[in-house]
Amino acid sequence: MLLALCVMAGLALLLGAVLGFAAIRFRVEDDPLVDKIDAILPQTQCAQCGYPGCRPYATAIANDEADINQCPPGGDDGIRQLADLLGREFKPLNAENGVEKPKSVAVIDENVCIGCTLCIQACPVDAIVGAAKHMHTVIASECTGCELCIAPCPVDCIDMAPLGETPASWKWRYPLALLKVVQ
Question: Would the annotation count 49 as a binding residue?
Answer without folding.
Answer: yes
